[in-house]
Design goal:
single chain, alpha+beta, five-stranded mixed β-sheet, 7 strands, 53% helix
């Protein structure tokens, strides 16, 4: 009975890790296709320097996604560094239509988070809030520490939940993927919510336990 119990626990742990890895490695193929298409257009237009920069950023971003163990967490500072690579690629596509604002507390930069937990949320916002609007929009990335809770927010100035596309926006692969990853990693110690942004748009909020590398090592 003990041997069967141990085998069951090992199988459950293996299934848990496999599911996390699957969720972590679901890089949206549309992003890769759109990026390569944008680079191709730059080459045809003779903007070789910009195209080379985009290829370099894409290479760095993809390397980051492959080098980081999906079972381990990274500091928010490292996560935001990877997000910067991703956003530089998107800036090639959208130019001045994509405005990035960041409001991150210094203490929050040391917090441990699942790697690339923000990328699907940002990709979702660009797809539904920036891309459809002729004038583009604003994407704001915020992070703060409240007592022992890390609060992460991705806000946009798109149509928000009141638009007809809200059904797709609130149940898209990126949001569903992130929700499932957080549930697997933190169970009931996390919260994932969607709310209207003012005066227009959507705010995605993630609440996680505030932990740092020092605290984890001591534990």
């Amino acid at each position: 009975l003990q041997e069967q119990t141990q085998q069951t626990l090992k199988a459950t742990a293996a299934a848990h890790q496999a599911q996390l890895k699957m969720l972590r490695y679901q890089l949206n193929p549309h992003f890769l296709f759109n990026t390569l298409n944008a680079i191709s257009t730059l080459i045809l237009d003779g903007a070789n320097e910009t195209a080379n920069l985009a290829v370099s950023r894409l290479s760095d971003f993809l390397r980051y996604t492959l080098d980081n163990d999906p079972m381990k967490r990274v500091t928010l500072g490292s996560e935001l560094g990877a997000i910067d690579l991703y956003l530089e690629i998107e800036k090639v596509r959208f130019g001045e239509r994509l405005v990035i604002q960041r409001n991150v507390e210094g203490r929050a930069m040391q917090a441990l988070v699942p790697s690339l937990v923000l990328q699907p949320l940002i990709e979702n916002a660009i797809k539904y809030a920036i891309s459809p609007c002729e004038d583009g929009g604003i994407l704001q990335i915020s992070a703060r520490v409240q007592q022992q809770t890390l609060v992460l927010q991705i806000a946009d100035t798109g149509p928000g939940l009141g638009n007809g596309s809200s059904k797709h926006k609130s149940s898209g692969v990126g949001l569903k993927n992130t929700r499932e990853r957080l549930q697997q990693l933190y169970a009931d110690e996390q919260a994932f919510t969607l709310a209207p942004n003012e005066p227009t748009g959507l705010v995605v909020t993630i609440n996680l336990p505030f932990e740092t590398e020092d605290e984890t090592d001591n534990a």
